[in-house]
Each structure stands twice: as C-alpha cells, then as structure tokens.
TrEMBL record:
InterPro entries to which the protein is assigned, alphabetical: Ala_racemase/Decarboxylase_C, De-COase2_N, Orn/DAP/Arg_de-COase, Orn_de-COase, PLP-binding_barrel
Active site annotation, chain numbering: C342 (proton donor)
GO terms assigned for molecular function: diaminopimelate decarboxylase activity
CDD domains, sorted: PLPDE_III_PvsE_like
Any matching Pfam family: Orn_Arg_deC_N
Residues bearing PTM N6-(pyridoxal phosphate)lysine: K48
Entry superkingdom: Bacteria
Domain Orn/DAP/Arg decarboxylase 2 N-terminal, residue spans: 31-271
Keyword Lipid biosynthesis annotated: no
Protein name: Diaminopimelate decarboxylase
Residues annotated as signal peptide: none
Any one of the GO BP annotations: polyamine biosynthetic process
C-alpha cells in the first residue's frame, strides 16, 4: 500500500489525503471466513461499518447477505443486488422504513419492542402479508467483558429479557407476524474467541429453551456480531480459526434441530483491508510535546477519537521537497498526530516513538476500513474530503472524493 500512496502523491501538488481499500484482500479474506463456518452458520455483513458502494459490490458474492439499520441502508444494498438476503435491525424504525422493508423483500426484521411489534403487524395487515421477524432480546447480565456492551445492562436495544413473557402473549394477538427466532447482540469488539464461542452456545441454549416454552418453530438465531479488532496490538487479533473450531461442537448440542445461525459482522470484515493516509503539514513543539499536524483528522477518521485509542501508523517517506523554505523534521522523539480542526480532541495518535518524520511525509493508518469515514463529521470546518481509492486486480476502480 505504501507504493500506491507514493505513486499517487507524485501525481498531485495538493497535500495528500485518502482512504484506500484493498478489495482483492477483502474478498479473499471474507470468502475464506464464510466458507470455513460449519454448515448451519451463515455470515452477513453489517454495512454500518462501511456502506460504500464499491465495498458492497465486492462483498455481495462472498457473504450470505447484508445486515442494515435504516431504509437508506436497504436502498444501498438493493442498488448492488436485487435479491441478496437482508436483515433489518435497529431501534426506532418508522412506518416508512417498515413499509420500505416489505417493498424491498427484506428477509427478516429484528423487532426491538412491543410497540414495534404492534406497528409492524398493522403495516403487514395493510399489505396482506405475513412478515417473518426475530425478537431482539436484551439479556440479563452478567455477560463477558468487551470494549462495548450492547446488552446485559440498560440500553435502547431490544426487549428486556424479563418482558419476554408479555411480548409472547401479545404476539398471540398479532396474526400478521411470524416469529422465526431470536436476535442477540450483547457485545461489540470482543477479542476473546473462546469466550465468544461460549456466548454463542449460551444464545443457542436460551433460544431453544424459549422455543420449547412458547411453542415456537425455531428456524433462525441471529448471534449478532461483536468479533473484535485489536487496534493496540495489530499482530494479536481475534482467533477466527479457534472460534470456528469451537462452534461446531459447542453449538450443535445446544441448538435446535434444523436451526440456522447467523452472524452479522461489520468491523471484523472490513477493518483490516482499509487504510487512511494523510500528509504531514506541520511539525511543532508545544509545552514540551511534539505534534505532527496532518491533512485531515477526525473529521475524516473519527475512529481513534470515538474509541479513545491511539491508532497505529507507519511513516511513508516522500523525499521530494519543492519549496524554497526549510523542511521541518523530527528525529527519535515521541510525537502526537493531530488534524486540522479547531479542537484539542482532533487527535489520531498520541506520544508515538518515531525514528523520523518530516513535513511532506505521509502517515498511513492501517485497520481503517470500518467505522472510519462512515462515522466521521465530514463537513466540520468545511475542509476538503479525502479521496476514496479502491484497488482491485492491480487497478483502481470507482475512486473519488
């Protein structure tokens, strides 16, 4: 990727700033993971992590479907595939979104509350349809630790476990809904493969018990995503092979016969094949600390700020210096990488020991393919947007700003 950045820099005079995505690596890696799962598992991509069209087109042939959380995301998926299965989740779905889900033939809708059940039943009745749904349940704790807890504590997600009996009773009055199973998503960015396999087993045992209690035909269990990325130590990532090896034996004994288990992974699928590159504009010392100011910042790549971590990077040297004034440089020091915004929170990396960095060099941040541009405040201060470069078969496709 460094060679691509250097070559692109030679073509332009403006400071370099871009996202780069290796679509070949993305497809190969994802296809390998999907095919390695036991036969009763399917891998969906949660497009909230990165919903750019080139990413979706690359993934459509190698995943079993897409998970979305809005009508806008449904439309993005349908632009790249008319028939790929879609899972539709998220709190606060509007009538227009639920209508759109039916029009676009969504595979399953994850119902998040009793009110949403009632709303969807009425909409389905107007269309003379029986809609397949999963009930999203916010489980009682305690649950394994991870970077972000999505359940096991008060959140806006799902129906609390204690309310399940009332929800099941209410469903008896809703003839246009067909409950096909349950949806759980309790953790995000979990790095412990063994613990995550055990968590999936727990999901299966609960779903099977509830199906027996309420007389349900349990066809699907959505075990969510939550497989993590280790930004602090890039060489020590979630052990996919161990996770998959554990799934077959752990889960089969707990799952209902003929039940299909879905994963909806986002970060784990796209993070490692995306990069953010930003040219160094200034190097300065302020009250004993050194700063490298780059073209861009958290308005392009908000992930480090939102997750409060120091993102790893490498220095790509650019030897050309066409200016008549002195070129600032820093050798064998700790430096913090900051952006152009007028806020002290615009920090991408903190106190990183470097051998050398100069104004005009380019910093390349790996593992930037998920929750980077997608969650950033693009137009704060009205700075230019980065380029978006997609690499496939040794060529660039569909790039732009």
């Amino acid at each position: 990727m460094a060679e691509v950045v250097q070559e692109r820099k030679q073509r332009q005079n403006e400071p370099f700033c871009a996202y780069l995505h290796d679509l070949d690596a993305l497809k190969v890696q994802t296809a390998s993971r999907a095919s390695s799962l036991p036969e009763f598992f399917k891998l969906f991509y949660a497009i909230k992590a990165n919903s750019e069209e080139a990413i979706l087109r690359a993934l459509a042939p190698v995943v079993h479907g897409f998970e979305v959380a809005s009508l806008g995301e449904i439309k993005k998926v349908r632009q790249v595939s008319a028939d790929i299965p879609i899972l539709f989740g998220g709190p606060g779905k509007t009538e227009a979104e639920l209508e759109g889900a039916l029009q676009h033939n969504v595979h399953l809708i994850h119902v998040e509350s009793v009110h949403e059940m009632n709303k969807l039943n009425a909409i389905a009745g107007r269309h003379n349809k029986k809609v397949s749904v999963l009930l999203r349940i916010n489980l009682k704790g305690p649950l394994p630790q991870a970077k972000l807890a999505m359940g096991g504590r008060p959140t806006q997600f799902g129906i609390e476990e204690e309310q399940l009996p009332q929800a099941m009773e209410q469903l008896q009055q809703l003839p246009n809904l067909q409950v096909e199973g349950f949806h759980f998503h309790s953790l995000s960015n979990n790095l412990d493969a063994e613990a995550h396999a055990q968590l999936v087993r727990y999901y299966c045992s609960l779903a099977r018990r509830w199906a027996e209690t309420y007389g349900l035909s349990l066809r699907y269990l959505n075990a969510g995503g939550g497989l993590g990325v280790n930004y602090a130590e890039l060489e020590q990532q979630f052990d996919w092979n161990h996770f998959v090896n554990q799934l077959g034996s752990l889960v089969k004994e707990a799952a209902s016969p003929d039940m299909m288990i879905y994963f909806e992974c986002g970060r784990y699928i796209t993070a490692s094949t995306g990069y953010y590159a930003a040219e160094v504009l200034d190097i300065k010392r302020n009250h004993g600390k050194y700063y490298a100011v780059v073209r861009g910042g958290t308005h392009h790549f908000r992930l480090p700020s939102s997750w409060q971590h120091s993102h790893p990077f490498q220095v790509i040297t650019v030897d050309e210096w066409p200016h008549p004034y002195e070129r600032p440089s820093l050798d064998d020091e700790k430096v913090s990488v900051v952006g152009q915004l007028c806020t002290p929170k615009d920090v991408l990396a903190q106190d990183v020991q470097i051998d050398q960095v100069r104004v005009g060099d380019i910093l390349l941040f790996p593992y930037a393919g998920a929750y980077g541009w997608a969650i950033s405040h693009h137009d704060f201060l009205s700075h230019p947007h980065p380029e978006h470069i997609y690499l496939e078969s040794n060529a660039e496709i569909g790039g732009g700003v």
